[in-house]
## 1
Amino acid sequence: MRYQRAELPLKLDGLAAARRFFAGCLAEENSARETLWVAHVDDEARCLHVSWHWGDRAGGDFPIREIIADAATLGSAGIVLAHNHPSGDARPSDSDCRATRRLATAAEALDCAILDHLVFAGSECTSLRQLGYL
């Protein structure tokens, strides 16, 4: 896991802003393995903190406890997630959907919302919010 302090006033206020930001993040990474990016935002969608977690070709690490601990420490109002699929298929897997729902349930206890989870594959991007999973 690596951490990056987001420079303010980066705002992730909607799908287009999140897609642009995470596309840039993922472009810098090795696309042969999954990487999960997590952005914590305040109640005005200003980015407070960004972290990323590496996986491999078979899948990525989805550290729910760490994400929730960061949300509690930062006082996050929302979380935006993004990860890549090295397979080239931007559709979320069943495990992507299950993990996102588990995270949303845990975050709800902190009055923190999962705003979206984006899945990237090449130039394609799928939003779990747009698909109705959030």
## 2
Amino acid sequence: MRISKEFELKSIGNQFVVARAGESGSIVFALNETGAFLWKGIEEGLTEEELCKKLCVEYEAEPSEEAQIGEDVEEFLSQLKTLGVLEEDGRP
């Protein structure tokens, strides 16, 4: 999976927004810190599983929290796909 070239993450102060690339002032939606963290991981080419692991490490998740984090990451990616932000990149 990869982020469509049509979208880019922008930082405005301590807020994060996703905007249409090249369009000034065209904000599509906002992301919280965790969403921006995941976005950057996607840009790095991480898989869903790798995103989950990295998020668990970053937030020092307890083993009992890992399943919920996995579900949350899956939901986040699903929403990005629904919005047309994520594209398949041909990797398994």
## 3
Amino acid sequence: MKFSSRQPEPAGMQLAPMIDIVFLLLIFFIVTWQFSRSETELNVSVPTAEEGAELTRPKGEIIINVLGDGVIRVEGSTVDLPQLHDKLAAIARQFENQPVRIRGDGSVAYQRIVEVIDTCQKAGIWNISFATQRPTPAE
């Protein structure tokens, strides 16, 4: 009886699963980049402060951007005070201690910031913080 010593052919590298994973990673990074970009308006120049806590964002924090001309933007869309109240009240009903961060432009009237704070409090939001930046060191 003669046995043949047949070796199985080497398996080729499967590219389809690798391409699927690469595309999933690409989609994930594009979506998260777009989301984080819409939260912080680039044309808001927050005031400077020597002291303050380091930036640690609580989970689910809402960022309210108040632009230099008084326009209020939340999650990439422009809202007025009644719309902001409705949005925050709906969130406050679901989450008891909802954190909110106000990013007010340094040139916006203080009255506009007070109106935003008042709207937050009327909606039941009390966990409010303010965004600042460190001053640039003089050389």
## 4
Amino acid sequence: MMWWGGDWNWGAWVAMTLTMLGFWALVIWAVANFVRTTGTGRARDAEDILAERFARGEIDEDEFQHRRELLRGRR
């Protein structure tokens, strides 16, 4: 048995379009959330943190150079 001539009406097309948009929005959100929470970005190494502390004025130049050389294994 075929209802309404066997084809879809405008309501079915709207529902299908909204469902597909919702599906792809959910996929994009899931991928973005996964990337954000797994920390796949560039990892901060110890020298970067040391340079930030020097830039903020937490340590002076002598201490910065001393610790940087320690990190690089020169002392």
